[in-house]
Design a protein that fits this description.
0% strand, single chain
């Protein structure tokens, strides 16, 4: 059951990754095609007419740039999701004999560190922070001030 689930998860990750990369490639070629179009400057004597004629292509170019930006952003998000899915695929469980062989092949220091780590994982966890109730917090500064005045 787990092996089948792991395979399905890996397949979905590869699928999402390939869709994201395909969209990124499409976005790149769309941007390249947009940038290689012939842009000819408009030159006339009437300034108002020049702005009127140039405003349409400028708005179209701005729309193209925003479209390409959104396409690139979405395709990069899809690619990141595919990579995340692939990195989160659980590894198949190792057989006890294989684990023992790997442990024996490592140096003595590494074996001791692994044993200490496993022992630390099984021991109960002692918190490193101390929680002070609110009532004690309100009283503590007052007693601290009295101690400072007396010294």
């Amino acid at each position: 059951m787990l092996k089948k689930f792991r395979d399905k998860l890996a397949f979905s990750g590869i699928t999402v990754l390939s869709i994201g990369v395909t969209l990124l490639i499409f976005t790149f070629f769309s941007a390249y095609g947009f940038l290689t179009t012939d842009l000819s400057p408009i030159s006339t004597q009437d300034l108002v007419q020049t702005f009127g004629e140039a405003l349409g292509p400028l708005i179209a170019a701005a729309i193209h740039i925003m479209y390409l930006g959104v396409m690139g952003w979405i395709s990069s998000l899809i690619t990141i999701r595919g990579v995340t899915i692939l990195t989160r695929v659980p590894q198949p469980p190792k057989e006890p004999q294989q684990q023992l062989q790997e442990l024996k092949s490592q140096p003595q220091e590494t074996r001791m560190r692994i044993k200490k780590k496993k022992k630390a994982e099984t021991e109960p966890y002692d918190p490193e922070m101390m929680v002070i109730p609110l009532e004690e917090m309100e009283q503590q500064p007052q007693t601290h001030r009295k101690n400072k005045r007396s010294s």
